[in-house]
Amino acid sequence: MDKNPNTDFTPGEVAGQKIPLQKFKDLSSSVGKFFREHIEELSRVFVLLIIFLVLIILSPNFVKVANLLNVLRVASLNLILATGMALTMLVSGIDLSIGSVIALSTMMFGQFFQEGRSIPEMVIGIVGILVISAVVGSINGLSVAYVGLPAFIATFAMDQITRGYSYYLSKGIVFARFTEVFQFIGGGYLFGIPMPVIFAALLLLVVGFMLNKTTFGRRIYAVGSNKEAAKYSGINVKQTMVITYMLSALIAGFGGIIYLSRLNAAEANIGLDFPLQAISAAAIGGISFNGGKGNVFGIIAGALLLTLVTNGMNLLGIDSDWQMGFTGLIIIIGVLVDRSYAKKKN
Amino acid sequence: MSDTILSLENITKAFPGVVALDDVSFDLKKNEVHVLIGENGAGKSTLMKVLTGVYQPDDGKIILHGEEVKISNTKQAQERGIAIIFQEFNLVPNLTVAQNIFLGREPRNKFGLIDMRKLIKESKRLLDFLHSDIDPNAKVSSLGVAHQQLVEVVKALSVNAEILVMDEPTAALSEHEIETLFSIIKSLQENGVSIIYISHRMQELKEVGDRITVLRDGQTIGTRAAEEAELDELIRMMVGREISKVRIREKNTATEKVVLEVKNVSHGDILRNINLKVHEGEIVGLAGLVGSGRTELAQVIYGISKKDSGEILISGQRAGVSPIKSIKRKMGFLSEDRKRYGLSSDLPVKVNITHASLKQLFPSGIVNEKKEHTIAMDYRDQLRIATPDVTRNVVALSGGNQQKVILAKWLCTNSRFIIFDEPTRGIDVGAKEEIHNMINELASQGVGILMISSDLPEIMTMSDRVYVMRDGHIVKELDGYTTSQEEVIAYAVGGRE
Questions:
Q1: In principle, which of A268, B207, B285, B323 could form an S-S bond with A170, CB 3.0–4.6 Å?
Q2: Does the beta-carbon distance from A222 to B367 stay under 8 Å?
Q3: Sequence-separated (6 or more) residues with CB below 8 Å from residue B301
Q4: Residue-number span of the structural domain to which B210 is assigned
């Protein structure tokens, strides 16, 4: 049941629109000053493009609309999780508990989605999952910001605690056979677009707006860039961190609901590798582990890149053991490339 | 007390833009305590770094036991019997006393492992030599400052140091501990160790020293026998230079209204019963040596450190609780450490400028980027921040321009009271003058200013009033227009009470 969100791949499901190749052409036409300012982001787009081309050449199946939509759909869950992860990384933290948070909240509220349940009951379930996630995230934030535990330790401990408790709650029970309405959240389509893709896009819009256009976004970058200077500037560093961890877990819960719905089943060991998948995407996307650096475009590029590569390797029939190795290499290369940009800037 | 064991002859050392040592000569006799004094930046530390091989002199000779030597690193200095104890100790807190003493030079047994028994025995022997009862097995972190210093001394002795340099050894010690240190110095002297003793404290010089040499602006001003030296003369030698600069601030614009009032504030051993006032439109200089508690006072006023007792009022309202509260009371703070406390270097200039006034500027929580950009551009023009555009990251700016960005941040909050901690440290001459003019301009607009500075001419040419701090006390309040450098230094070093 615990599938890797990047290898969950079933080709040829749906027919849709043409490929948005035009997007890339538009980008390259308005280069100039824009290019110099956004060289980092553009380099990622460039890498994506290369992988894209390689896959087109290597595998005739790749450019099929069905496959491309599937790539997007598969990428969307990790995209959601990576967005939450990126927030904690922006305040120079990390959140290793996102998978277990999903497991725990699911074990507590999964029954509300099973066949025969009414819509109000499902709403209770969804709200319940989000609330539990937010509470766990807040505790993470409190122990990092106020108790002063290293984020790695605090969230890893929380991961163990919540995972253990969800095993205890489940007693081996598997929730399955969800109502059709609930299944639509993760499995449905709107105008031919998979629902998870729509949800991911909405989330990215909201988070992108928050990071770039709100004072809270300013606070996140300030805290991640220099905690001491932020404190001296009258920014409530601890509060900012607590809210950030809360948001990370809340977003994980949101992703969890979608995942649950798409799988149409849930057990206590879901999402074991979610944190690492999310960290990989964020890291490849240029979210710095030192905090204060990175944006939503990077997250999108990172998650897409990771999924594309996996998808490509699947199409090429590369053994899954080798795939893991490749993924690791890509993470290292991505981070190294980032670092060289950072050096050049200074 | 005759034979010279060390002489530094005509040492010159230049760094880009500044001659740190200019033809300096200095000698040390056997069994002697030779005191080296001078203001911050006079060249004492540089001279000692030349002696211990940290820096290579551009010109001049080091003569040890009558032979010219080249010392290319601290290890070579050690091998030649020269050891230095810095103000900041070089001890590993989680290791034991014995482990620290022989760190990196542990005695080995025949298996190549550390010979613990010998390690302890040797440490004990050295500690006994100084009549100390410190347990060689105690962790260094469990020791007080004085005992830690003693461990440093023992460490130096363990390499058979003949020449021991002590940089401000009493800075962190209490009265009683200082006495212990002096008796240790006596017994070192009796055992053939010569000591170069760097200090600012006037009273102790005559007690501990045999000779006193004064450095100023990288030059040797003179050497006196400790017995004959007069404090007033030493102070004159230290300050010496005439202020050629005219006062930057000509007219006192202070009003009757008090903007900052500090009443009986104490903070551990660092600040003791501090009282001071700053009026609107007034520039108050806070002078004192490094370590006298000036920066700590600033941090307590700003609410970064918690005071133990006393009261801090900004515009008559309680403050000193947190930076958030201080900013609400219209206070700004430019720290001496710009990179660490002042700036988010990886973020754009405009973002840095609005950091302290996000709530004020954008009460809805949504950033109006056009407004932010306009504000930042206005400050760029007003303060002449040299950057083609405000979306550039702060890290690309020079020190002077970075300081202006921080100033813009505090103007953006409409500060009515600003602390400048070393406002022009590490800033080039041109930008320095600009910043002085800006501070002056702010005061004439009614902003109250507390200016901490180690740059005496800055204090002398800018302040309406001057407070002098020493050892956590405010020892004197002086009129900025009539006081002299000698007077300020005399209070700062304790030459006058």
A1: A268
A2: no
A3: B260, B262, B312, B319, B320, B326, B331, B419, B450
A4: 4-239
